[in-house]
Amino acid sequence: MNLINLLNSVDVEIGLFGQTFDVYLNWIGKIIQFLISGVGVVGIGIILFSLILKLVVLPFDVYQRISMRKQNIKMKENQERMEKLQKQYANDKEKYNQKVMEMYKESGVSMFSSCLPMILSMIIFIVAINAFNAYSQYSNIENYNTMVEAYNTKMEYYCADLTEENIRIEGDKIVVKDEKGENSYIYYTLLVSEDTPTEKKDIVAYVNANKTQCVYMVDVEKAYKNKEIAEYTKAKVAAAVEENDKTENAAPLTEQQKADVAKSAIKSYFEEKAQEAVVETYNTTVKEHTSFLWIKNIWATDASYKHPVLNYSEFKTEIEREDFRIGNNKVSLNAVGKYTNVYTADAYNKITAKLTEAKSEANGYYVLILLSIGTILLQQFISMRSQKEQQKFSTVDGQGASQQKMMMIIMTGMFAIFSFMYSSAFSIYMITSNLFSMLSTVVINKLVDRSEYKKEKEEIVKRHDQRLRMNRSMENAKENATRKNKENKGKK
Q: CA 88 to CA 74: how far, in whole Å?
């Protein structure tokens, strides 16, 4: 098969992609990035961040839990009184609440002492979790950027080097074409504008600065002289001829049709090489930054319906929610789109074309989701158990415990929804946070109980000592009175 005459001097346009842009990270996101990169294992970095966050709010959390535990102890100490109040004011909730507040005041406990720490902890949690979810989006985009760079780097291996010797203006285009380079099958063309410089050294700089606006062309004649490319092309043409011959009543392919198939094959050769470079980068670099235990992409949900590589609609949602950085400026996707074509559906699908397995396999098996739900349920249960009396007497009709159970169900359901909505990294965060809260609740309760027991023991000892002193005083007074009576009788 000799197609060289038909291929001679015919160029094929291929798609390289413009530059990628870094996603803007706020200071909390940078802390997460520092921890993950410092530890080297993404899952461990997330656990470490979760623990640091819990340590930040720990003083408020401790204060809140101590206050709530003390309230529960006071309720238990005044159980008989509280039961009487519930019976006495069964039909007057307002009066009951007033009497309860008076009891708190007498006992030196404030119902509002735990509110401020709870509010502060919630604010810190919301701010941090927003940054944490933003980092998940950031990571998915940065991983895609890494694959784009691998694609472009491989494709540019075949591109002509930019020098003053191989750059020229042909009509309304700037053309960069290396006639001598053995591997330079691809060259750049760029439309001339009013701003185009005339000096060759300036033109080189201009092309370098505007590569995202270049059209990349394959010199098919030169490429076909490469043995590997020629064999690849011949195989594609032979396959097209064989497929055509199988079609009933189909006319044989003309030489021009074969040439068109050959040109398409040459184009696909370079694209496949670049896509193979993407697969290699994904397996060696991206996976290393995203996998943890059984989870293939920690920035996606631990579920079978989610996949390690996002589909474009999911990816588009990620990039539309994020801000990019151009210099020191924070810009939206629309602003970035003026400079690059890399975040379009065509680009994304071409870059990830050979990652079909990663686009279809299960990212996880719901393990983290179940652990998230289980730990929040257990944490809520432990918290309820430690406030049993407080819940019982918080309302005149004793429905406080039922309300707390309903709140536990609502909280568990809410976090279950979060676990299905957000990434595996979020589930790891929640599990770590819940386990830490459970442990701190148990420890704080034991310390408070021990402290209160010690105070109660000291109070008992104090009262005992007081009784002893009173008894001694009474005995001394009695002895003195007896002695004086005897003295008085002796005088008589």
A: 20
- 303 DSSP 8-state letter: S
User: Looking up tokens 């890399």, which residue turns up?
Assistant: 342
User: Hey, where are the domains in the chain?
Assistant: 17-158+291-440
pLDDT (0 to 100) of residue 174: 87
- Which pLDDT tens digit goes with each residue over 286-310? 988 889 989 999 988 899 989 999 8
Distance, CA of 143 to CA of 298 (rounded, Å): 12
Calculate Rg over the CA atoms of the chain: 38
DSSP string, 207-271: HHHTGGGPEEEEEHHHHHTSHHHHHHHHHHHHHHHHHHHHSTTPPPPPHHHHHHHHHHHHHHHHH
Helix (H) / strand (E) containing 46? helix 42-77
pLDDT band at 4 (very low <50, low <70, confident <90, very high): low
* DSSP-assigned beta bridge partners for residue 217: 13, 187
Rounded to two decimals, what is the model's pTM?
Answer: 0.75
What number of other Cβ atoms are within 10 A of residue 78's Cβ? 19
pLDDT computed for residue 1 by the predictor: 47
Residue 407: in which H helix or E strand, if any?
Answer: helix 400-421
